[in-house]
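Shift notes (night). Ran Transcriptional regulator while the centrifuge was going.
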Amino acid sequence: MSELNWGLIAPIIILQLLLAVIGLISLAKAEVESVRGPKWLWVIIIVFGSIIGSICYFTIGRKAY
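Came back to this:
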């Protein structure tokens, strides 16, 4: 059995956690009117959607003014 190459995996894990934390903070500070859809749904998408969930929130979930 081969060992995992943590030099390649660690940056992806750090990026995923960083995007999730920034996304959740942004969502918590956002007004209800500035978010597309219910906030509780975006929390679920960000937490369980991995990197894709956070990216979807930043690209689709926030309304541009």
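The CA atoms of residues 14 and 20 lie 10 Å apart. Helices lie at 6-29, 39-48, 50-61.
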